[in-house]
Specification:
ATP-grasp, alpha+beta, globular, Rossmann fold, nucleotide-binding, Dna Ligase, domain 1
Length: 409
């Protein structure tokens, strides 16, 4: 019998991890509540359970006598992975550490403990406390469910009336019924991917984040690696990231951190995670930038087979993901996907989820984006490739206002 490894999550972003586990010689037990997700096609065993249900998943893990449990590119199962591995004596990051890396309020409290500057914030579970904080700081704020992902329930608030209007909608996305209300700043944003093994940590790549210009959709239209910032600024961001990840005590795995600068050149943590970045950052963009097979590394540490800090070789290329939304309506025509597949500078994408006749609903978070992984020898080369893709992909959506195309920014 093949040793069994359990993977939490079965959507498109987990497919590379599931495929690598099979390639590495494991029977895969894939867990997700959504029966139609693509990862199940590659699973030896399929379990349809909420990935937050720690006790039920622990029972299945014991039943199957798994040798490891893992997830990537998603926050929601991180606590369950840590809980099961801890209860079964398997390799993991520890449940307490998993809670820290999946709770935006605890992240800020830990930063304060470490002496790392934070924006003004408060953890609230009722509108009265939220209003009190808003009136106290007398500036725009942002509402964030403390323990969710995909920018669900995130809103920028400029007035008391907006706060009252959006509070209940935001809190419904919080599993713990709490919201982080925080001072809002705008400025340059960075993303940093890192790697930890045996309590040692190293930054891998630092990139730039650019957002859609859509109200209350806090979602990136592109993340570009490496960052175009000057080396001194990149070093500042990476130094701060190292202080946070080491201070938070991540002993193994891939980390994904997001930062923002204000007008005074202060750098603040937006959030950090004990897993690789989504939209194939972990599976593809790290590999393109560093020649590191993240799935192989994650599987190796989860099964206790990793024996040394992996070798990392920085590649002299530029890469990114580009994303787009579609307007509300039905897809009337779709051309260019096969042409994009044939392009040597494109890698992975989720365009196969689109089809003529598909109903497109309102875009409220990151989960409804379509995206493509792109590379180039230089940043200029990368920009040309992105333009080629945007010109090649032709999608028409029948909306109430007529025919409209993709929303790229």
């Amino acid at each position: 019998m093949m040793p069994k490894i359990m993977i939490l999550g079965a959507n498109t972003l987990q497919v590379p991890l599931i495929q690598q586990a099979a390639k590495s010689g494991y029977d895969t037990i894939v867990v997700s509540p959504q029966k139609d997700e693509p990862g199940f096609k590659y699973a030896n065993y399929s379990i349809f359970v909420d990935v937050r249900d720690k006790e039920t998943i622990l029972k299945y893990a014991v039943q199957h006598q798994i040798v490891g449990i893992i997830t990537d590119q998603t926050d929601i199962p991180v606590r369950t992975v840590a809980y099961v591995s801890e209860k079964m004596g398997l390799s993991g990051i520890g449940y307490e550490n998993a809670c820290l890396f999946t709770d935006k309020y605890l992240m800020r409290e830990k930063c304060k403990e470490l002496g790392i500057k934070t924006l003004q914030y408060r953890n609230v579970n009722n509108i009265s406390d939220a209003i009190e904080f808003f009136e106290c700081i007398n500036s725009d704020v942002i509402l964030k469910p403390i323990d969710n992902q995909g920018s669900k329930g995130v809103f920028k608030i400029s007035t008391k009336l907006e706060l009252i209007d959006k509070f209940n909608e935001s809190i419904q996305y919080s599993n713990s019924n709490s919201i982080l209300i925080e001072q809002f700043v705008s400025g340059r944003e960075f993303v940093v991917e890192g790697i930890a093994y045996n309590n040692n940590f190293k930054n891998l790549i630092c990139g730039d984040t650019h957002y859609f210009n859509i109200p209350d959709v806090f979602s990136a239209t592109t993340r570009i690696f490496p960052s175009k910032a000057d080396h001194q600024l990149i070093r500042r961001v990476e130094k701060l990231n190292s202080e946070i990840i080491k201070g938070f005590g991540l002993k193994q795995g891939i980390s994904h951190s997001e930062f923002i600068m204000d007008g005074n050149d202060n750098i603040y943590l937006i959030e950090t995670a004990a897993r690789g970045g989504g939209v194939f950052i972990s599976s593809d963009l790290i590999s393109l930038s560093t020649n590191l097979n993240t799935e192989e590394f994650l599987i190796s540490i989860s099964t206790g087979n990793q024996k040394a800090f992996p070798s990392v070789k920085i590649e002299n290329i530029a890469s990114c993901y580009i994303a787009f939304y579609l307007p509300v309506g039905h897809i009337a025509s779709l051309e260019g996907v096969k042409d994009i597949d044939r392009m040597t500078f494109t890698h992975r994408h989720n365009l196969n989820d689109l089809y003529i006749g598909k109903k497109i609903n309102q875009n409220i978070d990151k989960t409804s984006r379509s995206f493509i992984i792109v590379s180039g020898e230089t940043h200029e080369d990368l920009e040309r490739h992105v333009k080629t893709i945007q010109q090649t992909l032709k999608i028409e959506v029948q909306t109430n206002s007529g025919i409209e195309g993709p929303i790229w920014n």
